[in-house]
Amino acid sequence: MLENINIFLIILMGSIVLASVYGFSNPHFVDKYIFNIPAIREVGQWDRILSSSFLHADPMHLFFNMYVLYMFALPLIHNPHFGTLLFFVIYFGAVIMGGLLSYFMHKNNYAYKALGASGGVTGVVMAFAVINPDAGMGIIFLPFYIPSYIFGFLYLIYSIYSMHNPTDNIGHDAHLGGAVVGILLPLILYPSMLVQNFSKISLLFLPLIYLGYYAYKRK
Known about the structure:
The protein is mainly α. The chain has eleven helices and four strands, in the order H-H-E-H-H-H-H-E-H-E-E-H-H-H-H. It has helices spanning 7-24, 27-33, 37-43, 48-51, 59-77, 84-106, 118-131, 148-164, 172-189, 192-196, 198-218; strands spanning 35-36, 113-114, 136-137, 146-147. A hairpin with an 8-residue loop joins strand 3 (136-137) and strand 4. Helix 7 (118-131) runs parallel beside helix 9 (172-189).
C-alpha cells in the first residue's frame, strides 16, 4: 500500500486541506483568494483562479473533493503513459480551464464568487474515463458501478442541465471547463486512445460539442 503513495500528490492535498481548514474560520483570508468577478475583471487578479482551488466552503465539500481526487489521481500517476508530471498538468490545466469558463459565463455578474478544487478533480476523473473507459465507476455509498465512459457522459449531461437550471450552490461551469481538459489532453498526447476506443470516447464528446455551441452563442 505504501509504495502506491505519491509524495507530490500528498503535498498537493495537504496544501488544499491546510488552506481550506484555515479559511473555515478566517473569512478575510477566503475573501482575499476566492474566485471573484470584480477582482478579476476590474483589478486583474487572475491568480484567484488558482488560489480559489485551494479553498472550500465547508468540511464536507473538502472531504468529497479530496476523496475523489485521491481515488482517481493514483491511476493516472501510476499509468505508464502519464506519471506525476502529466497528472499535475491535467489537474492544474483543468483548474485553469474551469476558472476561465466560469469567468466567461459569469463575467457580467459582479456578485458571483466561487471556490473549490472541483474543476481540477473533474478533469482528473474525466481523464481516468478516457484512459480506462471500461473501468467501473460509481457514486459513494451506492452499491453498483457502470462503465466510466457512461458515467462520464451522464455526469456531463447533468452538469450542462444544472448549468442551465441552477438550483444549488455548485459551480457546474467550472466542472465542465475541467472536463474539457481531462478529456482532450490525454487524447492530444496519445491519439491512439481515441482510435482504440472511438465509439466509447466519442460519447464524451457529444456534451462538449453542445458546450462549445452554447459558449459560441453567448459570446
